[in-house]
Amino acid sequence: MRLSLAGFGILVMTVVATPAALPPPDKLPSVAEFPDVLAMRDGTKITSKKDWEEKRRPELKELFQHYMYGRYPHLTEPVKVVVTEKVLFEDTQALGGAGTLREVEVSFSESQWPKIYLLIATPNGKVPAACFVGPNFGGNHLLTSHEKVRIPTAWVPANYPGVEKGTNKATAAGRGKQASTWPLQQIVEKGYAVATFYCGDIQPDRPDVREGMRATLPVYKGDAPLDETATVMWWAWGCHRAVDFLVTDKSIDAKRLAVVGHSRLGKTALLAGAFDDRIAVVIPHQSGCGGAGPSRSKNEKAETVKRITTAFPHWFCGHFRAFGSDTTKIPFDQHALVAICAPRPVLLTNAEDDQWANPSGQFDVLTAAAPAYKLYGDTKPVADKMPEQGKLSDDRLGYFIRAGKHSMTPDDWKAFTQFADKWLK
């Protein structure tokens, strides 16, 4: 049980399962198939939207925090977003004259928290616009050759263009080298805005370093709690702070926001969408294991929980690593994270050659999430079968798979905007 004050002294009480009430992973029952998304932990069956929203949905959020992504940070602290008066730059004739490009520094009430630098592209003459928001891998400067776009100062992985080996510092040599991953001009010409930030400004993607937002957590003499906030959760939290700004921006339609991310940032996009109802559409692209790919995988070519938690232990909390040898003990699967998004549209996108991300398993996840959507009156939220390659299924629980490999391309963005054309206009 958590107590919080909201409004004018009104006491708001939210009842959730406390960590003390949740058993350690090895004491959980074994469930071979996807756990029933409408069944509470005590077996009670959920049959109404009211009970889903008041009982099962909060329970699932608690389970995902405790056993997989770690605690949602700073739950007891009011988070105030303060936008600097000075926009870092603004070019009203950018992107071939189709849009306005600007960069905004977003800071917080807590001065020790790192800042977010939002690169925002809006279509000229079409505001307020629906907006795609999400983190990028190596810095805003990789997405455009515009010389005024800031170069990140945080640690950047060495495999991104223009990064100095040994120091892991981004340089101007990377400008525009990954513009096809977030094709800004293509997006604004379709009438949409884009807002993106470097994920490492919130939390650099390396373990065991107390930097970024991880540096705001307590330092323990012994081991950290097994449900301590993990990196994917920090990135999702960063998406929410970007949304805090976007809902105040007059050029953006606050009710038409879509979160997007690729690969590990696709995991981030799904988690961010599940934990923030202000996000209207959720698009985790090739998110795989730990995202929209099921932990109980039937695809022998897909990444496993054991593999991902060994290679990238910092992406998830300590409890999740314990499930590597037996995923049947996980008290949920990724269909439940999709279900938390109900009734908002979710689009899962994949590539045929990227079996590591488990494309077929992701479609199974959509099918298993459908019962939650049906509580909201959508009797057929997902297609009867996985659509053929290159054909978008634009149901509320949508799906798209193309030829090719693990990447985010302009063709993927065509699918994103086509889905948005249905659900955001």
In angstroms, what separates the terminal alpha carbons?
A: 39 Å
Q: How many helices does DSSP assign?
A: 10
Beta-strand content bin: 15-25%
Shape field = globular
* CATH class membership: Alpha Beta
Total number of beta strands: 12
Largest sheet: 10 strands, mixed
The CATH fourth-level homologous superfamily: Alpha/Beta hydrolase fold, catalytic domain
Gyration radius from CA atoms, angstroms = 21 Å
Q: Would you list the SSEs in sequence order as H and E?
A: EEHEEEEEHEHHEHEHHHEHEH
CATH topology assignment: Rossmann fold
* Low-pLDDT segments: 1-16
Our count of domains comes out at 1
Q: Mean of the pLDDT scores?
A: 93
What is the helix fraction of residues, given as a range? Answer: 10-25%
Assign the CATH architecture. Answer: 3-Layer(aba) Sandwich
- How would you classify the helix and strand content by structural class? alpha/beta
Organism: Gemmata massiliana
Pfam family, one: GCE_fung
GO molecular function: carboxylic ester hydrolase activity
Protein name: 4-O-methyl-glucuronoyl methylesterase-like domain-containing protein
